[in-house]
Amino acid sequence: MQNNVISVKVFHSYISCLRFINLNSLYLATEVILQNNSLLHISSYDFHPIDNLVRLSLAQNPFEMINKDTFHQLFNLRSVDLSYTGLRYLPVTIFKHNKHLESLYITHAPLEYISSELLYHLTNLNTLSFSNTLISKDYGNLSLLAMMIPDHIFSVHYEYCCLVKFITKCS
């Protein structure tokens, strides 16, 4: 079996809706980069035909909400970038079916809250970046933040620092 990366990159195209891209023809894509467009709405069916998707970037788009079922059919997803968007919160179950997700980037967004329940669903997540968000209002104290982050996440980028948790296994 070949491990070909099929990449789709759409930059600066001013696309406001994913219906303008025929995603059905991209069902073999492993990487979709839709950065710096004008996406205002991300629905639960936008990425449904792309079963092999491993990396998705929706960075630098003005959408403020994302449907809780948007990523449910993307079982192979490993990296998601939602940076520079208008997101204020993430639905608790948005990544419930993404067991392979390793990296989540939500920097420079007005994100106000991230649920610890959302993070516990992501057992393979090892990098979480939410620097330059509004979360600092709720977690001004890094020790409170460290308690909220599950032990399996060992690299957290927050504001202008990096909180690194070391995992030790007892034998």
Largest sheet: 8 strands, mixed
Helix content: under 10%
Secondary-structure-derived class: mainly beta
H and E order? EEEEEHEHEE
CA-based gyration radius? 16 Å
Distance between the termini: 37 Å
Counting DSSP H or I runs of 4 or more residues, the number of helices is 2
Identify the overall geometry.
globular
Q: Strand tally, please?
A: 8
Strand order of the largest sheet: 1-2-3-4-5-6-7-8
Write a brief caption for the model.
The chain is built from two helices and eight strands, in the order βββββαβαββ. By secondary structure, it is mainly β.
Give structural notes.
- With 171 residues, this protein is mainly beta.
- 8% of the residues lie in helices and 15% in strands.
- The protein has 2 helices and 8 strands.
- It has an 8-stranded mixed beta sheet with strand order 1-2-3-4-5-6-7-8, with no helix packed on it.
- The longest helix is centred in the last third of the chain and has 7 residues, at 142-148.
- The radius of gyration is 16 Å and the shape is globular.
- The protein starts with 6 loop residues before the first strand and ends in a 7-residue tail after the last strand.
- Mean pLDDT is 78; it is low at 160-171.
